[in-house]
Amino acid sequence: MEKSGTDLSVFIDRALASGIGRDRIRAALLQAGWQQEPVDRALAEYADIDFPVPVPKPKPYLSAREAFFYLLLFATLYVSAFNFGNLLFVLIDQAFPDPAVPNLFQELVASRIRSAVASLIVAFPVFLYLSAKISRELLSTPAGRVSGVRRWLTYLTLFIASGIIIGDLSVLIFNLLGGELTVRFMLKVSVVGAISGTVFIYYLRGLRREEVSS
Questions:
Q1: What does the DSSP assignment read for the chain?
Q2: Which domain holds residue 29?
Q3: Which of 83, 95, 146, 158 could be a cystine partner for 119, CB 3.0 to 4.6 Å?
Q4: Are residues 25 and 130 part of one domain?
Q5: Cα–Cα dist 105/109, whole Å
């Protein structure tokens, strides 16, 4: 399998060096039985610029520094989103108490608020700092934009956010069909949907912008 990939790259390199256009190269390879995805991926390894010999694009690589930044970025994102939602849940419980549930201990409520606020004070500024740093240092280069670890974590985040949105809507419909909707419940559903939806749309738009620029 590795040899096939090497043969494909060597063939494309020689064809480009001979002055053959990309469309002709692609058509010849597809006619020979190659799949379109590996052909396009191999062609994308060379810059489409006017030069006597094929110019390779920089290949993405995973460094420990890059992995650290991205892992910390998404970890602070998850912590910030969870604690922001937790804080809003506490405020909703305070504003619209459930008569079927005994009054919450004020000490427990205060502890939940302190915990959520403390986590936000620490995690959210780190998230903003890393977002700016990564955009400035890593995403400014082609290799940084196609980082494997960033794409994996981004798609993982999209998967988690979409799962939360689906679950949120399922719970909403379930309670709607059962006639158990309350202001308190609707506000909590809205909080979960708003947070997960914002994260999902933000990172999905980022991926689409990269595809367009590529």
A1: -HHHHHHHHHHHHHHHHTT--HHHHHHHHHHHT--HHHHHHHHTTEE-S--SS-EEPPPP---HHHHHHHHHHHHHHHHHHHHHHHHHHHHHHHHS--TTSPPPPHHHHHHHHHHHHHHHHHHHHHHHHHHHHHHHHTTTSHHHHT-HHHHHHHHHHHHHHHHHHHHHHHHHHHHHHHT---HHHHHHHHHHHHHHHHHHHHHHHHHHHHHHH-
A2: 2-56
A3: 83
A4: no
A5: 6
Dist CA 33 CA 30 (whole Å): 5
Considering the domain architecture, whether residues 40 and 104 belong to the same structural domain is answered as no
Q: What does pTM read for this prediction?
A: 0.66
Whether residues 143 and 96 fall in one domain: yes
| Pair 46, 105 in one domain | no
Share of the chain above pLDDT 70, in %: 82
What are the pLDDT digits (tens) for 19-77?
888 899 999 999 988 988 888 888 888 888 877 888 887 665 556 777 888 889 999 99
Total of domains in the chain = 2
Sign of torsion, CA 72 68 131 142? negative
Rounded to 5 degrees, what are φ and ψ at 139? -80, -5
